[in-house]
Design brief:
This protein is an alpha+beta fold. It is built from three helices and three strands; from the N terminus they run βββααα. The protein folds into two domains: 1-91, no CATH class; 95-124.
């Protein structure tokens, strides 16, 4: 089965061999709205078990891709917000005195969180290094 997104729809296509034409012919099993994670029950009943699994895998992959894009947008938004915050502080330095304790706590919590993530990444990268080869070397120098 092939899953083909086109516009706001996702089409499910099945290829069958036609002996009369001596080639395969594609038939549309059904379609679904690109933004809804479900199939019409009638279309779902027409799918074979392997095709249903393929559809579920497609949905899982799409969800993961959408989640990653959403997280990247949030990070870009945060970057812009921090830049705006810095410019506002430069324009109104008196605001620092009024809110310094709140910001210090928020920034301290954020800094601790980022440092912990960096530590975990370093630790994971050390684990990911391949072990040295064991046994006798093939060529001795």
């Amino acid at each position: 089965m092939q899953i083909k997104p086109k516009g706001s729809r996702v089409y499910l296509l099945r290829s069958n061999y036609d002996p009369a034409k001596k080639r395969s012919v594609q038939e549309v099993i059904g379609s679904a709205d690109k933004y809804l994670p479900s199939l019409d029950p009638e279309v779902e009943r027409q799918l074979r078990p392997d095709e249903l699994k393929q559809w579920q895998d497609y949905l899982a992959e799409k969800r993961a891709s959408d989640q990653k894009a959403s997280e990247e947008r949030r990070l870009n938004t945060l970057k812009g917000m921090l830049e705006s915050f810095r410019k506002a502080l430069e324009a109104h330095p008196e605001a620092v005195d009024a809110h310094q304790a709140e910001w210090a706590k928020a920034l301290g919590d954020t800094k601790a969180f980022v440092n912990e993530l960096a530590r975990k990444r370093r630790k994971a990268s050390k684990k990911a290094k391949p072990a040295p080869p064991q046994g006798t070397p093939l060529l001795e120098v």
